[in-house]
Design brief:
The chain has about 800 residues and is mainly beta. The chain is built from eight helices and 45 strands.
Length: about 800
């Protein structure tokens, strides 16, 4: 179905006719919110009386409630209403408007804050749902941390810079927190939203969801439940590489289903219990990738590549308030299952033929790879924090944390290996690999690792004077990592087992000073450490292609190795930041600016063994990331609001690194990969009154990301001239809406100028020639209707 102007007019008319008179319900303004303790306060729009002021979000970035302007760190926070207004539906959309946050979109998103990006080892960015971390170790650079879809959230917080003291391992570059609404004991509220959209050259999309909360026993018990489903129509066609005929249209559809149920029970005024359950399942029909030689959004893959990602989060939060101290316990269990299928029909021949993706005499050759990645995390945090009255000079928080993360990985490859070895080498599988091809898998790998962390942490704030505050914090952890690895099949040289363990005791301190020049102006400076834990590598010595490959490829032999290193250690950062947060012109303008310098040591880096298409992780080189970010929001008139977010970052190696045989693996001065130097987001919104108590708005948003480096420079392993320079991008979107009472109707256009910028060029093996890429979703027109109560 095409969304013609006539059909759009009909949809608008139907929604307007259904609008009902209803008085809006407002929450307390930000300045009236409690600034101490953990009692939840929901973020909402500011009341009419404060329309001339820029609204302020209440955050819990320091595990206590504060207006964002009083938090001495670089932080961005967006409420559900803001996410809806700006059309932000996922983490990639979020990265376009948050300075310092970048997402490299491929088959899986790779996220980075302030240039600290990695596709191997542990995540450099901690991902939290409420108080539970859900990030994971990367496996074969093709898995990613769980990212909740953005429906029925109180807010999203992006904390830039290491957060090791309060948020532990993995919060090396920063932390992203998805905060869900807390059920109310006294009020009934909720909303319903539905939408429909069409994408140019693609299939239609739709969404429908509802959230509702109410007291069960007034003042004692309450609940909140939500359910949402979205389908994004595909826009990539799989075509026959010989004829160009469409084999399957719009294959890269995505479907998401999200549900949440939470209760709150307060048997006494001091005790609150909050059990909750979160469910999310996403399914992908195929990858968003296309082959450049086939044409924009046309794929030459021979086989479908579906994927699914399902996770649940069960949590119980208990809080007890004394007169001066709050005790809070968070117990959670996170369970996740990822599965995916990949077409290796070009990859396998490239690996054995030095880059040629085609088998002579067998154009129909296909190879199928499958992966499953289960994850089970137990987390327990117990913390005490002070409840402070105005004028108190000392506030503090301290606690203990325990986690057990069990992650598994199973990979199989099915292919006619006898055909491949005969064409590539003129020999049988037995002759090439030394073992017979007895099937059904030509490669089988089963990994399992368990990561345990036990930590004690604390942070103290002391007001030296009425304006000057000192902050000190410390976290001491004990991390252990154990793993087993089973490989089998002829490509692994037959069955063999592998395993090992590592342990360490990281210490992450924090120091900070903040000075309150006035009630609306704060200066701050911080120094903080962060880290991510080490891990282990799969064995490669059993694969003859990894040991010594075709001429011109990188193999274990050319790297001077008998096998991949069994384990790799943690890496760490020291971050130094200064910043200012100020409100001007009767709080019509808010500014937040910061400058930072980050030293990154012993970087976990992936080394690609191109002779067999595998990689291993090792610690090599040091780097520095330095830059600034600026956020501004201004209500220039009662009807006009402007926003701006600017990010600048220069991240590069500061030392050389080489393998045992002298192969250069990192070079001082070379930029870290895949993060742009400049990012910019601009927004403008105009609000006005139309007719009978009806409000209207129109907004325009623009996002820019500068160019980046996609491969190391010449002379460094992995250099490819055709991948070196990634392009700058520009992206426009617009939205207009009408609100009347509880109803809101909006229409939007995403990718307004239909940008087809090629975002991420890659191929499997150097010399292969089959370049693939991804681009923005083509221009999409849609309508959305929301009812709030």
């Amino acid at each position: 179905m095409t969304l013609t102007p006539r059909r759009l007019t009909v949809l608008v008319s139907l929604a307007l006719n259904s609008m009902m008179h209803a008085a809006p319900v407002w929450a307390a303004g930000a300045d009236d919110a409690a600034a101490q303790g953990d009692t939840p306060v929901q973020n909402a729009a500011a009341p009419d009386a404060a329309k001339n002021e820029v609204a302020e979000v209440i955050v819990t970035a320091q595990k206590t409630q504060q207006p964002i302007s009083k938090v001495p760190m670089s932080i961005s926070a967006m409420t559900q209403a803001t996410l809806d207004k700006e059309g932000i539906n996922n983490v990639a959309d979020l990265a376009r408007v948050v300075p310092g946050l970048t997402v490299r979109q491929n088959s899986e998103p790779v996220i980075a804050i302030r240039g600290l990006s990695s596709t191997v080892g542990a995540s450099t960015t901690a991902i939290y749902i409420d108080d539970t971390p859900v990030q994971m170790h990367n496996v074969l650079t093709q898995t990613a941390s769980a990212f909740p879809r953005l429906f029925d959230l109180d807010r999203v917080e992006v904390l830039r810079g290491p957060q090791g003291t309060l948020f532990g391992s993995g919060a090396e570059g920063g932390t992203i927190r998805f905060i869900t609404p807390t059920p109310s004991l006294t009020e009934t509220s909720g909303f319903a939203r539905s939408g429909y959209a069409v994408t140019e050259g693609g299939a239609p999309s739709y969404e429908a969801g509802v959230a509702f909360g109410a007291p069960i026993v007034d003042g004692t018990a309450g609940f909140r439940a939500s359910l949402w489903r979205q389908r994004e129509g595909g826009y990539v066609d799989r075509v026959d590489p010989d004829t160009g005929d469409v084999v399957a249209p719009n294959v890269n559809s995505h479907t998401a289903t999200v549900g949440r149920l939470a209760f709150v029970y307060a048997p006494t005024p001091r005790l609150t219990l909050t059990p909750s359950f979160y469910f999310q399942e996403t399914r992908r029909g195929d990858k968003d990738e296309f082959f450049e030689d086939a044409g924009l959004n046309r794929s030459w893959y021979k086989l479908p590549q579906p994927a699914s990602d399902r996770f649940t989060l069960s949590a119980l939060t208990a809080q007890y308030d004394w007169d001066k101290v709050t005790l809070k316990s968070i117990t959670s269990y996170f369970k996740r299952m990822q599965s995916r299928t990949d077409d290796y029909s070009y990859f396998s021949p490239s690996s054995y033929q030095g880059g040629s993706p085609y088998l002579a005499g067998d154009p129909g050759y296909t190879a199928l790879e499958k992966q499953t990645t289960p994850q089970k995390n137990w987390n327990q945090e117990l913390r005490l924090s002070s409840l402070n009255a105005p004028g108190d000079k000392l506030s503090w928080i301290g606690g203990v944390y325990f986690s057990r993360n069990k992650q598994s990985f199973r990979q199989t490859i099915e292919e006619p290996l006898d055909t491949l070895t005969q064409i590539a080498f003129g020999a049988s599988v037995q002759d090439v690999f030394g073992v017979p091809n007895n099937g059904p898998y030509q490669w089988l790998e089963q990994e399992e690792f368990i990561q345990r962390e036990a930590a004690a942490f604390g942070e103290v704030n002391y007001w030296i004077t009425d304006k000057l505050k000192l902050t000190t914090g410390l976290r001491v952890a004990r991390d252990s990592f154990t793993f087993t690895d089973l490989q089998d099949g002829p490509e692994a040289g037959g069955p063999h087992n592998y395993g090992g363990s590592t342990s360490e005791t990281p210490v992450t301190p924090k120091f900070g000073l903040s000075y309150q020049l006035s009630s609306d102006d704060m200066l701050y400076a911080t120094a903080a450490k962060g880290y991510r834990p080490g891990g282990a590598n799969s064995a490669m010595a059993g694969n003859p292609a990894c040991v010594a490959g075709a001429p011109g490829t990188v193999s274990l032999t050319t790297l001077g190795l008998a096998d991949a290193p069994r384990a790799y250690g943690s890496d760490s950062v020291w971050s130094y930041e200064v910043g200012d947060k100020i409100k001007l012109f009767d709080r019509r303008l808010t500014l937040s600016a910061s400058a930072y310098w980050i030293d990154w040591s012993k970087i976990q880096t992936g080394i690609f063994v191109s002779s067999c298409g595998l990689d291993y992780t090792t610690n090599l080189g040091n780097a520095v990331s330095k830059g600034l970010d600026l956020q501004a929001q201004a209500r220039v008139l009662d009807s006009i609001t402007l926003t701006a977010a600017l990010g600048y970052g220069d991240a590069h190696y500061t030392s050389d690194a080489a393998s045992g045989d002298g192969t250069v693996l990192a070079k001082a001065g070379d930029q870290l990969l895949n993060t742009p130097t400049w990012t910019l987001a601009l927004g403008a919104q105009y609000d006005w009154t139309v007719g009978d108590n009806m409000q209207a708005y129109a907004r325009l948003d623009y996002q820019y990301a500068g160019s980046y480096k996609g491969s190391p420079e010449a002379g460094v392993a992995g250099y490819e001239a055709d991948l070196r320079d990634g392009p700058a991008t520009s992206y426009f979107s617009t939205r207009a809406g009408l609100t009347r009472g509880r109803w809101e109707l909006s229409a939007y256009v995403n990718n307004l100028l239909n940008s087809g910028t090629l975002l991420n060029r890659f191929h499997d093996i150097p010399g292969e020639g089959l370049y693939r890429n991804v681009t923005f979703r083509p221009r999409t027109l849609g309508v959305s209707a929301t009812y709030r109560f």
